[in-house]
Design brief:
The complex is a heterodimer of chains A (544) and B (133). Chain A is α/β, with parallel strands linked by helices. Chain A contains 20 helices and 17 strands. The radius of gyration of chain B is 14 Å and the shape is globular. The chains are: A alpha/beta (544), B alpha/beta (133). Chains A and B meet through α6 and α18 of A and β2, α2, α4 and α5 of B.
Chain lengths: 544, 133
Amino acid sequence: MSDYVLLTDSDDPSITAAVGQLESWSVQHVAVSQLTAPIEDASVRAVLVVTTDPTELRAATERAHATGIPVIIGCVDDTARRRAVELRAEEWYRIPATADEISARIHSAVSRGATIGAAMTDRVERVEYEEMLHDAMTGLPTLPVMIERSRALFKERGELVVLYLNFVRYSKIEEIYGWEKLDAVLETTSAAVREFLDDTAGPSNARLMVSFTNDDDFIFFHVPAAGVAAATESEITDMVARLQRHVAGRIEAQHGDDIAALFDIYVGRSHVYYNPKIRLERLIYRGIREAAKAARSIEERDRARRVADLRASLRERGVYIDYHPIVVTESQEIYGYEALARGVMRSLRSPEVMFDVAAEADLVWELSRLCRSRAIEGMDTHLQPGELLFLNVDPHDFNDPAFNEHEVKYPERVVIEITERTAIKDYPKFRERLRAFREAGFRFAVDDAGSGYAGLGSIANLEPNYIKLDISLINGIDTNFIKQNLVETMVKFANDHGAMVIAEGVERAEEFKAVKELGVHLVQGFFLHRPSRAPAAALTAVRR
Amino acid sequence: MQDTDLPPILVVDDNHDNAEIIRQYLEIRGYPITVAHNGDEALALFETVRPALVLLDVMMPGRDGWEVCRIMKQHPTLGKSVRIVMVTALGEWEDKREALQLGADDYVEKPFDLPTLATTVQRNLAMRSAMAS
């Protein structure tokens, strides 16, 4: 009485002989058409196919696999063997084969087939969980891995210092430049952190371990060496200051000072002592929470200081303007300048930081007024007659009664940039205000166009004269065909609507070439010019 | 044919007929092709095949193409070099934006003709070798 059945379309006697060698197996010879039909018989445990018709072979193999039955393919030539591999048959053999070989193939196919499902799940899970164990960008272990690694060491030494490094403005980088930029900055950061650890023995020759939380924070474990006291507060402060300088330097060198100005490290510290009554990972997690809280409270203190800095800046008109040239793509002639407001105080250098602080302190209108008047003041001294001034205006500024269409001497030389990122609440009223400005001679640009999922409809609503592409679409456009397609769509849309497209954030020759080929009208970016307070005449000399 | 040097391609499509048509068309052009019929299978084969390029159908039952794309692009060793081409019936702005967000390099709009597909494959492989050098 046989429990298991081998189904085959072959009448090769060696197959019959092979099955005869296997205990409790029998063979059933069928037409190939039966192999492609549903297999109802539950005692069928393997299928052996020899047909040379590729369609039938595929159908039979897939049918068997769909039922969870392993497949052995008998191959007459190399082409058939290749097919067998592609179809991922569990086993294959070359015809003619001995009964011994065939029975061995059946045996291994069945044992391998039994694990098909499980093995596949394993591999899927490995690929999926790999990213959870080691951060792909930084190459650093994630927290659970680090806890596992430090377990023994912590138990042995009895104490552990947790340092929580909160990199505050990193989320802003993603918002402005897109995730690819943030990834690149994080890569630089982790490389710098690792470099720093390699160069530094660490306080009191201790073990330092680092992990990354996948957001933008790093966690250090510092386990003091045996017989040595844990690092003191001042040693830690000193180390953190050096680390901060090191990381900032690297970021500035690789990504420019605009990005470097966006970032700050706040470090919180906690001390954890081993307690056999409490689960070790709980102790560590508590320590991390405490350290994170400490980092946050330092950050809050710092914010309060920045608000005070901002109030002082507003009193003393402590804002200056960098003018960033926008050039005609074809001729590379200067077309106009975007005004970039910067705080005179070091803590408020970055406009994003400055406006963040203003929003917290309800001083946005006041800061906007100062920035606008500074930018407009500079038109006479910094711009040639006929050159345009591109002025960033937050949609909320249109609600400020002090902001009106009579504010400027040459409205026809001013382009108001409105970001696509801010949601506009009262649309009819907003459009009415735009019309008043337009009638006074102002022009409009949609800033960060294409940053959202909204598409072109919302851009059309604003009837812009200029469409300024979101930086994330330009960053690496030369290697990404989807970005090229989106920019192409935007250029076509602009041409149809009598508008011009501006690519900002062009940093490399390849990016410049790509946007030029796509017909982008105007270009702004470090590849051509850096923002500068120098007058236009001096800038012209810098032009490539 | 000196086609043995062409890099491997992973074709992921839950529609067996589509997958088969693509496989045959690209195979004639000398590319070593492996086919997966769902997201899990694609991920399971990813490390074995080490594809230079993945043609990834978006609409699949279970783990869809977006998720597969995201996971593949985050693979610690293969993620950086693999080119991912999304195959999608949705050519709208938001879909392309979504594709960008998840790290895709290119897309082919359904229904596509095979020469377009071949051109897309070629330009992405060319870009991949240009970036490697």
